[in-house]
Amino acid sequence: MNQKNYTVQELSNFYKYTIWGKLQNFTNAEKINLKVYLPELIGVTWRTIENWMYIRKDNNKFVPADKLYLLSTFFECEVSEMWHTPPTPLTGELQKIKQHSIL
User: Fold this and answer.
1) pLDDT tens sequence across 22-37
2) How far, in Å, CA of 16 to CA of 28, rounded?
């Protein structure tokens, strides 16, 4: 069976986060070390990081904000760069509620 190798751009059509693409910047030897040390730094298992890599855009699952911040710090990028498509800002009724509760 032929398995298609997707580019980072093609994956952006499927997945919510850019974790997989950012890991592709490392050599295979570095990736082996990352599987040991990155989970320690973030405070989760490697399996959890793998699960986060493959969250589809239409899925309600998410990476907790504190972990996303730690990942962005590790990858030396802005938190907003961790999404293929950043979340939509508050609009409509939610924005009105937010403004009303602040005032």
Assistant:
1) 998 999 999 999 999 9
2) 24
